[in-house]
Amino acid sequence: MGRKWNNIKDKKAAKDANNSRIYTKFALEIYVVARQGEPDPESNQALKQVLERAKTYNVPRNIIDRAIDKAKGGGEEKYDELRYEGFGPGGSMIIVDALTNNVNRTASNVRAAFGKNGGNMGVSGSVSYMFDATAVFGLEGKTADEVLEILMEADIDVRDLLEEEESVIVYAEPDQFHAVQEALKGAGIEEFTVAEQTMLPQTEVNLEEEQLAQFDKLIDALEDLDDVQRVYHNVDMSE
Question: Where does the record place the TACO1/YebC-like N-terminal domain (predicted)?
């Protein structure tokens, strides 16, 4: 799974280059998740997960607080969670998750982004069957053996655990996110380089230089859309 971790790091680094866009997307996600349950992370596990992920992207506290306060105030804004699937250059597969208050607008914009950048939309299920929903944690300051011991003591089974560069990466079932997080924090680990639920490809594809340039344009076009929260793909970006 090492290569998949490289993809996550590369994606995160690219997103970090445009903080204002990241913060806006997180503010919306926090607001929506807080409205779906209690606006308190201690009683709303979905909100707690979003806040943990926001922390790894250095989202300012004032933006988080404003989003939660907005959720507490109620309001009439309603958002739909949507997932689109499609294909890019060279057999690449792409999943797009969106939050929107206008389904027609979002569908049209996503379809246009695919069509103008060498891709095409697929039907529901045409791509997602090749991805696995996964909880991923990245941390520093511990060895893989130390982390494994922590998780074993908490009676937690994980899919994979490895050391890569200076990090330990934990891959777990998505419903184990909270258990893994609490076990690691209980062992004194407070900072994570990554803490999120993601979609990891079962296999990856390598693109030729020209195809990769077209693919990058497609991903950028999708991530630039205001309604798009997250984009997953199966392209090996580790080269």
Answer: 3-74
How many angstroms separate the CA atoms of 196 and 134, rounded? 8
What contacts 129, CB < 8 A, 6 or more positions away?
A: none
Containing structural domain, residue 28: 2-72
Could you tell me if residue 180 is inside a domain? yes
Say which residue the tokens 């392209």 belong to: 235
Q: Could you give the angle at the alpha carbon of 198 between the alpha carbons of 84 and 162, nearest 5°?
A: 150
Which pTM value belongs to this model? 0.88
Residues 210 and 106 occupy one common structural domain: yes
Residue 67 within any structural domain of the chain: yes
Do 148 and 182 fall into the same domain? Answer: yes
CATH number at residue 116: 3.30.70.980
Q: Is 118 helix (H, G, I), strand (E, B) or coil?
A: coil
Q: Please list, in sequence order, all residues whose beta carbon lies within 8 angstroms of the beta carbon of residue 31, skipping any fewer than 6 positions away.
A: 67, 68, 70, 71
User: Within 10 A of 21 (CB to CB), how many other CB atoms are there?
Assistant: 13
Domain assignment present for residue 106? The answer is yes
Q: Going residue by residue through the chain (239 aa), what tens digit of pLDDT does each one get?
A: 444 555 555 555 554 556 788 899 999 999 999 988 888 888 898 999 999 999 988 899 999 999 999 888 876 678 999 999 999 999 899 999 999 999 999 999 999 999 999 999 999 999 999 999 999 999 998 999 999 999 999 999 999 998 887 889 999 999 999 999 999 999 999 889 999 999 999 999 999 999 999 999 999 999 999 999 999 999 988 75
> Helices 209-223 & 103-116, crossing angle to 10 degrees?
160
Please state the separation of Cα 113 from the chain's center in Å.
20
